[in-house]
Amino acid sequence: MSTATARAHPNIALVKYWGKAEEDLILPVAGSMSMTLDAFATTTTVTVRESEEATDAEDSFVLNGTPATGTALDRTTRFLDHVRELAGSSARADVVSVNEAPTAAGLASSASGFAALALAASRAYGLDLDQRSLSRLARRGSGSACRSVVDRYAVWNAGTDDATSYAEPIDAPEMRLVIVTVDGAQKQVSSREGMRRTAATSPFYDAWITSTARTLEDMVAACKAGDLTAIGEITESHALRMHAVIASALPPVRYLAPASVAAFDTAAALREQGTFAYATADAGPNVCVLTTPDAAEDVAAALTPHGQVRIVGPGPGAHLTEEAAR
Ligand code: ADP
Ligand code: DP6
Ligand code: CO
């Protein structure tokens, strides 16, 4: 029996990933950029069973204290299949995972979840992957997970095949995100399904793809220049473009709630007063407002009417827990 425990944090994209060029490998239509958070971790333990005989046996997956079934179990099993292929093993595994963030609510539980699973499973199956290989592996579980392998700020190079599609660190100025939890409930349309629908039905999809590639170039340049205002402007406009292309799908998908829109308005009002605040939101109603360490308390206070607020900063990439590292 071999076991390993890993922790990973969600990441919030400042340039969003929305759409796949290749579904099985999870190659994105464009690159993206994110901050890995220092809060809301996922902790995952993988125990590989000793006996390889029972090849018909199933993996087990307990998420937040409840045995997973259906799609969630299936995604984990298919992910473990990739790990087994790399490790040359057919042994089944037992996976136990706890998300500190709400699951499937647009706070990147799939990112922290599959980054932690990639590290714990690769170790439990006897693999010792470097950061790039771990990022490539995590990508197979959920695209955004490839960025949660990296500390602080990451760029996911879209790439053209499995070997070239991975995240790597990028330097950026010290920033904070004020997370506004408007609603922790599970979303109606998963990111995976929402992306498929957008690609299949939005008349704006091609423009989204080409403009996102340019937006990422602008973001990388802004990070290199340490240009906070440009980083903020790009972040907010790119998030709104993503929600626009999503709303243009058929049947339409709308992830933002009235309170989410109100939080975007509060960010705009803060800017009017000279405070650095730019809003973004993933595929869910919860809003993240980008700000500076100095302004974070004021920004958080202004956002309290819209939901539960928490100030977070850049945090560590996926890592083994101390017990497992010993
Ligand atoms: P989110 O906005 O939270 O990332 P997604 O729709 O992208 O939502 O993904 C949610 C799915 O990710 C869940 O339904 C489940 O299949 C998977 N997931 C979430 N947390 C974990 C975890 N800790 N381990 C493995 N899979 C997870
Ligand atoms: C809006 O990585 O959750 O959060 O690859 O199908 O698992 P799958 O999707 P996922 O999509 C994330 C979408 C997003 C933007 C982002 O994180 O870049
Ligand atoms: Co996700």
Automatic annotation (TrEMBL):
It is an enzyme of class 4 (lyase). Its EC number is 4.1.1.33. Belongs to the diphosphomevalonate decarboxylase family. SUPFAM superfamilies: GHMP Kinase, C-terminal domain, Ribosomal protein S5 domain 2-like. Keywords: ATP-binding, Lipid biosynthesis, Lipid metabolism, Lyase, Nucleotide-binding. GO terms for molecular function: ATP binding; diphosphomevalonate decarboxylase activity. Residues 8-167 form the Diphosphomevalonate decarboxylase-like N-terminal domain. InterPro entries: GHMP_kinase_C_sf, Mev_decarb, Mev_diP_decarb, MVD-like_N, Mvd1_C, Ribosomal_Su5_D2-typ_SF, Ribsml_uS5_D2-typ_fold_subgr. Residues 178-304 form the Mvd1 C-terminal domain. Signal peptide: none annotated. GO terms for biological process: isopentenyl diphosphate biosynthetic process, mevalonate pathway. This is diphosphomevalonate decarboxylase. GO terms for cellular component: cytosol.
